[in-house]
Amino acid sequence: MNTGIRIQQRALLNAFIFFAVVSFGASAHAAAGDQDLIKKAGQVFGPLPQSMPTEQNPITPAKVKLGKMLFYELRISIDGTVSCAKCHPVSLYAADGLKKAKGNNCKENPRNAPSIFNSAAQISAHWIGNRTSVEDQAKQSVTGPPAFGMPSYESVEHILKGMKGYVALFQDAFPGEKDPVTIDNFAKAIGAFERTLVTPAPFDDFMKGNAGAMTEQQKKGLKTFLDTGCMTCHFSPYAGGQMYQKFGVFEPYWNYTKSEKVDDGRFAVTKKEEDKYIFKVPVLRNVSMTPPYFHDGSVDKLDQAVWIMAKTQLGKDLTKQETGDLAAFLSSLTGRIPDDAATAPILPAME
Amino acid sequence: MNTGIRIQQRALLNAFIFFAVVSFGASAHAAAGDQDLIKKAGQVFGPLPQSMPTEQNPITPAKVKLGKMLFYELRISIDGTVSCAKCHPVSLYAADGLKKAKGNNCKENPRNAPSIFNSAAQISAHWIGNRTSVEDQAKQSVTGPPAFGMPSYESVEHILKGMKGYVALFQDAFPGEKDPVTIDNFAKAIGAFERTLVTPAPFDDFMKGNAGAMTEQQKKGLKTFLDTGCMTCHFSPYAGGQMYQKFGVFEPYWNYTKSEKVDDGRFAVTKKEEDKYIFKVPVLRNVSMTPPYFHDGSVDKLDQAVWIMAKTQLGKDLTKQETGDLAAFLSSLTGRIPDDAATAPILPAME
Questions:
Q1: What is the C-alpha to C-alpha distance for residues A191 and A54, in angstroms, rounded to an integer?
Q2: What span, in angstroms and rounded, lies between the C-alpha atoms of B332 and B150?
Q3: Distances from the Cα of B159 to the Cαs of A151, A292, B150, in angstroms?
Q4: Quick check: B89 and A106 CB within 8 A?
Q5: What are the chain A neighbours of B349 within 8 Å (beta carbons)?
Q6: Which of A97, A105, A344 sits opposite B91 (nearest CB)?
Q7: Hey, which of A256, B8, B54, B282 has its CA 20 to 30 A from B87?
């Protein structure tokens, strides 16, 4: 072996060592960064549960089976066109793609329909705290004038009692009750079904330690989410739903949204001046898949919604890069829909 | 063994022989009756196919996948609330339970929405022959004023082209086409999906030779169906859908239905006097599950609809027993919905 070749070999070896050290250093650094991010994310969000039962409404297979059927039931609305699934269709991640939900006889609801996925563990249902739980929401919907529009709870019970299939299912779901076809059991059954609707996402895989489950841009967006202050309100496994907050802390929201009118928010419920423009912080699970955004659906694009949020809530003027990164992170919250949730139930025949 | 006991034994033996002969005779008789009925049913109806492709629109998995998504697509309607699935929800056996279908902005359609199950092999779609096929129906619906209400085919293509997810699916479904996102391919994809929607029922099991698949009353009803003349129009594996017929051969239909107005039927299409009150003979598959009945949904109960049919079409005044038997037979046409049909597809996000 001549000197020239030996020098070449040494040069190659040096190059190898150099690259190996650099790569190893980088990946060790990346791994440490990922571990740090996973840890921080775990502290803010925490693991998504498999379901969201409560003591008042434990989940049972019989309740879920009935609740799913009732979720799809159209014949208990005043014009026969409204079911829970109308405003929460699985195909659009259980939101409806409209600015504001449309109920019976095309009546417009006051606000945007939120997704029903991952929604049962919030402090309240809907936007302004006038629905205490998913059960309360199901119950109030049937007589809500722009929702199902039925004249009374009794009229709903009457229709359900007229179908033998339902009577048997209520008996199964609420064993031992003499007259189980009641509006409260209706609400409990739908609630039990909704409490199963959890959609684990790549972000959850990441939080479990699989650093490769998120792209580099998604991770960058997560860092920005944590560093900018979004997580002050959007925390918990649902990235929201745990508190009320003024929409427009730094500036009125309508300076930036395309709102057609100003919504007083929770003031409508409490009549307290300090509740003006207060809304529930929405859950961000599947947010990429459920435009348009905000309580009035006035913004179509996610990156624009993100920019408006930072501007009005945090007084920050995000760059295009930052809003892009944040939108990328939010897309990692798009989850897997449970098979059972995606299968339409067959309803009893009208007799 | 004493004589008394021997006589008792002989009496028992005689009794056994007597009952054995009677039972065997009866079951042989029943079996012969069933075989005869199975044979006759086979001649009138024939076996239900596994799917209903045409030469113009062969079924491919890629077309079915896309077609099913388009079937659930709401965002191609003028008010964002209408999809094929709105008037054909799986949960109600792909009919909508209304007298007349409701389209965009709650506009009422002129007639009752027929089930889309087992419907693709008819002479035409809908009631009066103004939709030549399921593909033609899908295409015409999007611009139909009381249906999707879109201003043009181009406006639908524009929305679909705006979602990358759809562009890729059209490319897969129509390989080699330079610009596959067209309204005609939209129609073909939905048609291909609908051509898979076949629901085999207990009646099919019976026709295959399983005499126990139908109850005695259902068999009695089938005999009545064949003997009374119902099968003159309601033949083929779909028990209908193969011809037009005047509604009111013996008497005007509105003498018995609760119709709010007289519908001229196919006259609206051809303007020929002889086409007045002519409608397509509807498919009877799943008819028990899809009230209300007739082109205007003016009758709620199946036994009443059966009675009116015999009266107006055959000039026969059926007894309560006969209408009950016929309704029982029709319930044997309630089929099993294919798993794939019952699963909601997840749609691409709006970009």
A1: 10
A2: 40
A3: 39, 15, 11
A4: no
A5: 288-289, 291
A6: A344
A7: B54
Taking an 8 Å cut-off on Cβ atoms, the answer to whether B74 and A92 are in contact is: yes
Chain B residues whose CB is inside 8 A of the A79 CB are 102, 106
Extract the tokens encoding B143.
Answer: 């611009």
- DSSP state for residue A85 in the 8-state scheme: H
Measure in Å the smallest separation between the Cα of A106 and chain B Cα atoms: 6
* Whole-structure pTM value: 0.90
- The chain A residue lying nearest B351, using CA atoms, is A301
Q: How confident is the model at residue A27 (pLDDT cuts 50, 70, 90)?
A: low
User: The tokens 């003159």 sit on which residue?
Assistant: B232
**ipTM over 0.85 threshold:** yes
The model's pLDDT over B305-334, given as tens digits with 9 standing for 90+, comes to 999 999 999 999 999 999 999 999 999 999
Tell me how close the Cα of A32 comes to any Cα of chain B, in angstroms: 34
Q: Which of A117, A135, A137 is nearest to A51 (CA)?
A: A117
Tokens of A268: 């409508």
Higher model confidence: residue B123 or residue A29?
B123
Long-range contacts of B28-36 (CB under 8 A, 24+ apart): B30/B211, B31/B211, B34/B211, B34/B219, B35/B211
Cβ-nearest to B97 among A80, A102, A345: A80
The per-residue pLDDT for A140 is 98
Q: What are phi and psi of A168, to 5 degrees?
A: -65, -40
Integer CA distances (angstroms), B127 to A71, A89, B133, B234, B289, in order: 31, 29, 12, 15, 19
Q: What angle do CA B346, B347, B350 make, to 5 degrees?
A: 145
Token pair belonging to A155: 């009229």
Q: Please say if the pLDDT value at position A196 is more than 60.
A: yes
Instruction: Measure in Å the smallest separation between the Cα of A38 and chain B Cα atoms.
Output: 27
Strand partners, A280: A244
Taking CB atoms and an 8 Å limit, are A80 and B96 in contact across chains?
yes
> Which of B66, B76, B92 should one mutate to test binding to chain A, selecting the residue with the greatest count of A CBs within 10 A?
B92
What is the rounded CA–CA span in Å between residue B344 and residue B340?
Answer: 8
Q: How confident is the model at residue B1 (pLDDT cuts 50, 70, 90)?
A: very low
- Interface contact A97-B288, CB threshold 8 A: no
B342 vs A91, A337, A344: nearest CB: A344
- Determine the Cα–Cα distance for residues A320 and A304; give it in Å rounded to an integer: 10
C-alpha distance from B1 to closest chain A C-alpha (Å): 58
Q: Is B91 close to A347, i.e. CB distance below 8 A? A: yes
Chain-chain contact of B89 with A344 (C-beta, under 8 angstroms):
yes
User: B260 with B295: CB under 8 angstroms?
Assistant: no
* H or E segment and range at residue B244: strand B244-246
CB B258 within 8 A of CB B299: yes
Query: Touching check for B97 and chain A: CB below 8 Å?
Result: yes
**Residue B31's pLDDT band (boundaries 50, 70, 90)?**
confident
Q: Six-digit token pair at A236?
A: 């918990």
Written as six digits, the tokens of A154 are 């009794």
Q: What is the pLDDT of residues A266-307, one digit of tens each?
A: 999 999 999 999 999 999 999 999 999 999 999 999 999 999
Look-up: residue for tokens 């919907």? A141
What are B160-189's pLDDT values in tens digits?
A: 999 999 999 999 999 999 999 999 999 999
Distance CA A136, CA A151 (A): 17
Q: Measure CB to CB from residue B345 to each of A91, A96, A349 and give the nearest one.
A: A91
In this structure, what is the dihedral angle of CA atoms B264, B268, B271, B275, given to the nearest 10 degrees? -50
